[in-house]
């Protein structure tokens, strides 16, 4: 398939032209080193977020995919030495605020190859209990 036709198929369940392609806003969450910045760069199709270093504060990236404006917010990961009580919640709320009026999607990024220990499972549960009254 050519690129234009491929985008049309991704954007519409029919072969009819898509007249309006609204913006999509995504919030990336996950542990430190999970690959949130890399996932954001892959979604946007370009190097917007710095990889290979710890993300210290939420940052926003914009792009266009198949004619649709995409906004992605990369957030700091949990489980870092800099993490303090409440920091994850503050950064998650800050990240969501960067996507005003709010995210369409919250994407949980997990490493593909990882052992899900009871400790990691509990940390995941604790971090996903964010108050979502963003």
Topology, please?
Elements lengths: L2 H9 L12 E7 L5 H9 L14 E7 L2 E7 L12 H11 L7 E5 L8 H10 L7
Parallel strand pairs: 1-3, 1-4
Antiparallel strand pairs: 2-3
Structural commentary:
The longest helix has 11 residues, at 87-97. The protein is an alpha/beta fold and 134 residues long. It is 29% helix and 19% strand. It has four helices and four strands. The chain has a single domain, classed as 3-Layer(aba) Sandwich (Rossmann fold), CATH 3.40.50.300. Strand 2 and strand 3 (68-74) form a beta hairpin. It has a four-stranded mixed sheet with strand order 2-3-1-4, with helices on both faces.
Overview in brief:
This is AIG1-type G domain-containing protein. The chain is α/β, with parallel strands linked by helices. The protein contains four helices and four strands.
Helix content: 25-40%
Major sheet size, sense and barrel closure: 4 strands, mixed
Distance between the termini: 41 Å
Radius of gyration, whole Å: 16 Å
Q: H/E element string?
A: HEHEEHEH
* Helix count, DSSP H or I runs of 4 or more residues: 4
CATH C-level class: Alpha Beta
- Total domain units: 1
Protein name: AIG1-type G domain-containing protein
Domain AIG1-type G: 21-134
Family: Belongs to the TRAFAC class TrmE-Era-EngA-EngB-Septin-like GTPase superfamily. AIG1/Toc34/Toc159-like paraseptin GTPase family. IAN subfamily.
GO molecular function, one term: GTP binding
Which tags fit this structure?
about 130 residues, Rossmann fold, alpha/beta, GTP-binding, GTP binding, single chain, 4 strands, 4-stranded mixed sheet
